[in-house]
Amino acid sequence: MSLVAEVVDAVVGGDTHRDIHALEMTAPTGATIATLEVDNDDSGYAQVLAWIAEHAPGPRVILGLEGTRSYGVGLARAAQAAGLVVVEVQRPRRSARRRGKSDAIDARLAALHTLGLDAERLPTPRHDGDREAMRILLSARHESAITRTRQINRLRALLLTGDDQDRTMARGALTDTRLGQIARRRGRATDLVEVRVRRAEARRLATAIAQAGREMRANRQSLEQLVAGFAPELLDKFGVGPVSAAQAIVSWSHRGRCRHEAAFAALAGASPLPASSGRTIRHRYNRGGDRALNRALHDITLTRWRACPRTHDYIAKKRSQGKNDGEIRRSIKRYIARELFRALEASAAP
Question: Which intervals hold domain Transposase IS110-like N-terminal (predicted)?
Answer without folding.
Answer: 12-160
